[in-house]
Amino acid sequence: MSEPRFVFRLTAYNTKALLPQVSHALELRNEIVSRAKYPFLWKGRDKRAAKGKVKPPKPRPEGKPNPYDKLAAKLLKGKDEFTPEDNIRILLYDEGLKSHASYTPFTEFYGAIETADTFMLIYGPLVTLLQKKDLIEGDIDELRQLFKERIPVNKKI
């Protein structure tokens, strides 16, 4: 394996500030996974949408909780407790992502979603959430380019 091109050193997540971004990204994640698993269903919907025959989603009523907020809170739980002494690093190579516990090649990724403060990487039933501020080695624009080259779906919200 080559040397890592990008290194993230995880620090405490501001879970309150990140909750809306992560919630929105999880909602988009569901669509990305669904499109990958059921392209035949989406093909017809996309054709109808192109012809203006699909109604836009109804806006969520004021005060009604977003169902993805609960999932986002679960994903963020405990991430506000990271300390520098934990020294948790995520390494990105040209071929994939390595954490302390596993290695996942980019061929297993469905998508990458960029929010204002994070990257959400989607693979199998899992996601890895990385804060942009935790990037300690590598250039963020080059990282975006790597995702575009290696991961089928890239979205910025």
Description:
With 157 residues, this protein is of the alpha+beta class. It has a single domain, classed as Roll (PH-domain like). The chain has a five-stranded antiparallel beta sheet with strand order 4-3-2-1-8, with no helix packed on it. A four-stranded mixed beta sheet has the order 7-6-5-9, covered by helices on one side.
Characteristic key phrases:
157 residues, alpha+beta, PH-domain like, five-stranded antiparallel beta sheet, four-stranded mixed beta sheet, 4 helices
CATH top level class name = Mainly Beta
> Which outline best applies?
globular
As a whole number of angstroms, the C-alpha radius of gyration is 17 Å
Q: Secondary-structure element sequence?
A: EHHHEEEEEEEHE
Mean pLDDT: 92
CATH architecture: Roll
Domain module count: 1
Beta strand count: 9
Helical stretch tally: 4
Strand order of the largest sheet: 4-3-2-1-8
CATH fold-level label = PH-domain like
* Strand-pairing-aware structural class: alpha+beta
**Main sheet characteristics:** 5 strands, antiparallel
Please bin the fraction of helical residues: 25-40%
- DSSP strand content: 15-25%
Instruction: Return residue spans where pLDDT drops below 50 for at least 5 consecutive residues.
Output: none
- The termini sit apart by 32 Å
